[in-house]
Design goal:
Elements lengths: L11 E7 L4 E6 L3 E7 L7 E8 L5 E6 L7 E6 L4 E7 L7 E8 L6 E9 L2 E8 L3 E9 L2 E12 L13 E8 L10 E8 L2 H4 L1 E7 L4 E8 L9 E6 L8 E7 L3 E6 L11 E7 L6 E6 L5 E6 L4 E6 L5 E7 L4
Antiparallel strand pairs: 1-2, 2-3, 3-4, 5-6, 6-7, 7-8, 9-10, 10-11, 11-12, 13-14, 14-15, 15-16, 17-18, 18-19, 19-20, 21-22, 22-23, 23-24
Length: about 325
């Protein structure tokens, strides 16, 4: 018999799973952040351990920071504000979630935010509704309130050129999953905007020698570079001689192989290896499993689809899941 792991209230708008601590964070339309924990170490069911009001407007995205930096989440709200909330212990009081940092922006709204760990520490990249990307770095690993702006740029292949103010409906960011201690920071990002040059997914890598972010690949065929991007997802790599990145546009989900060795211009080779079409309507979200072998996708058709490749590298739909009620 099927059994639910977590019962979420009506009005829940987003959630984020903490694999390390076996915890779930959920945001709601009325601005509350709920945290769910396993009842005990052997339990497969979860109960809500806290509920905190974090904003006057609804929460549209919640993201856990990497577990080695503590128990904290980033919340993006419907008005485009971004804030960090941390679980703290004060005296003999029960655990509480408290605001540790609020990121202000004059006119633009935050559309997506993700964290990445590199040699130099914890970084956070945020995409804004005016088409700008801001990368922040944590100055002190023990103080989650101490961030500084490291870089600001736009999602264009020619890093020298800049565009006027864009209008972006959404954005999607995915950091390169950790693999060893020596890797540099890399992430992929795409926009759903009115400016074609911003839309296509670009892979950004931090150039340590010159202390700047450079676009090292563009994941779009020549005729599709203006297509609005709904979601991106960088697969974990367990020994492949290339990276795998999924990019969802209004047309389909494209799977790309990204080379590991740059050419003389510092660019990485790209190859589109599959085009997955199955969702009716918009594609909303994509997640890889921990091995990078199975891709889960969800969309406005209300279904979750699982995709895998066979031994010959041909991708196919493994399963389609839909609500029973």
């Amino acid at each position: 018999m099927e059994k639910s792991l977590v019962d979420l209230e009506n009005g829940t708008t987003c959630s984020s799973w903490n694999y390390s601590g076996q915890r779930l964070a959920a945001g709601s339309a009325d601005g509350f952040l709920s945290i769910f924990d396993a009842r005990d170490s052997a339990s497969s069911s979860f109960t809500r351990s806290s509920k905190s009001r974090v904003h006057d407007t609804g929460i549209v995205k919640v993201v856990w920071i990497p577990p080695e930096y503590g128990d904290a989440v980033a919340c993006v709200c419907a008005d485009g504000t971004l804030s960090l909330w941390e679980e703290v212990v004060e005296d003999a009081q029960p655990l509480q979630w408290k605001l540790c940092k609020s990121f202000k922006s004059n006119s633009s709204q935050v559309l997506d935010v993700q964290f990445g760990v590199s040699l130099s520490g914890l970084k956070m990249v945020a995409a804004y509704s005016d088409g700008h990307i801001r990368v922040y770095e944590l100055l002190d690993p023990l103080e989650l309130k101490n961030w500084q702006l490291q870089a600001e740029f736009q999602n264009v292949s020619d890093s020298v050129s800049t565009l006027g103010k864009a209008s972006c409906l959404s954005a999607s960011i995915s950091w390169k999953p950790q693999r060893g201690e020596s890797q540099e920071s890399s992430f992929v990002l795409g926009f759903n905007s009115d400016t074609q040059q911003l839309n296509s997914s670009k892979v950004w890598e931090f150039d340590q020698a010159h202390q700047r972010w450079l676009p090292v690949a563009e994941l779009a065929l020549p005729g599709n570079k203006g297509d609005q991007v709904y979601s991106v997802a960088w697969a974990p790599n367990i020994g492949r001689p290339y990276e795998v990145i999924a990019v969802a546009t209004h047309k389909a989900i494209a799977l790309w192989h990204l080379g590991l060795i740059p050419d003389t211009d510092g660019r990485l080779s790209v190859e589109q290896v599959a085009l997955l079409s199955g969702h009716a309507g918009e594609m909303w979200q994509m997640e890889w499993d921990m091995s990078g072998m199975t891709l889960a996708t969800s969309g406005s058709d209300g279904k979750v689809r699982l995709w895998q490749s066979n031994l010959n590298g041909v991708w196919h739909e493994q399963a389609a899941l839909e609500p029973t009620t």
